[in-house]
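**User:** Hello, beginner here. Are you able to go through the protein record under this note? It all follows right here:
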Amino acid sequence: MDRIETARDIVSSSASRLCLDMRFLTRAMLSLRTTVVEGEGMPGCDGSTVAFHAETVLRSFREDPNSVTRDLAHCVLHRILGHDSPDNCPSSDLAEDMLVEYVLDCLDTPHTSVPGRDDRMFVCERLFAKAGAPAVDLLSATVEGTSKWQLDLHRRMFVRDDHSVRRPVDVALWSELSQQVMAEVEGFVRDDDGRTSALMRILRIRNRKRYDYRSFLRKFMTRRSTVRESQTEFDPIYYTYGLSRYGNLPLIDSLEQSDSGTVDEFVIAVDTSGSTMRGPVVRFLEEAFDVIRQTGVGRDSNLHVIQCDDMVRSDDVVRSEGDLRRLVSGFELKGGGGTDFRPVFDYVDRLIDEGGFRNLRGLMYFTDGYGTYPSRRPAYDVAFVFCDDRYAEHDVPPWAMRIVVRSEDLMHGGQ
């Protein structure tokens, strides 16, 4: 049999074994073609085809029958995890390879297991601990700080494919496939002794939603349209003539005019504990105040900006544009203690009981997330906004909304 034909059979059998080992990759595997070309070299995926080199396939298969299946799984997982840029810096390329190999080592399936698993997992877990999370951007920065001999060692341990052949791909398709894999792993994989936990964590980071928090602010803040008499379109002649002739029947009624919405009753709570960084807090408030200015502050507006760490430190009330300008120009953070969300809710509930709010609809709490939540649901909508660059999984009570933004989102206005 021709050597290329033999290599093709090996690659085809490897694809079948991969789908047998990891059924959740079947649809992704069917979305890619495989091809075998002459010569030697690492495999590479351009987004639609995984290309293998015949001589390398034959040699690798003789040394370890699982190696070709491992190479194929490596290429497919790159796509599932959103690794598709051909223009990465070397540290990002290595970080992507480390993440993929760590997932495969954790899964440790019969046809993808290759020697060196313990050493690879030890290196990855040590670097993940330094980086803070198994994310390419964080891991890349950590990898850059390692010595040259370590980088060379890590490349020999983790690099299995050629990233230079990558081409632009259908982002929507691979995003859908990634979410489908996550749903299948989460819903159908049972009793796996935690082998899929690494894949799930990295998939959650990959599929984490990016929010335009300015748009969220506009939608979440209570808006109230005010109706008043239109002095420009009202004709007093017909109005008074009707009253004089018919007593209480004007010929034309007063026209009404509706203002654009204004911020009515709303609470912005700011976590000023010692673990919260000043920069993101100030930037978030600047964006919130800008949205308020654009939306409008009416005569009946009742906006509270509350600062709290483990106790309420201040409550600035905004009822006019002047109040807002004074708050923006002289704003200072107060606090620096521990984090406890409950004092804000107790304080707001007390204001409601005392008549400080007529119909409070929403409270937005900007925080780093390390605090104690109220045990019961308040009578108004609540959203917790987390500023997090470390991909932590913040749990909130079922009655609260959760929005996660990164520092770069704050710096670029949520774009």
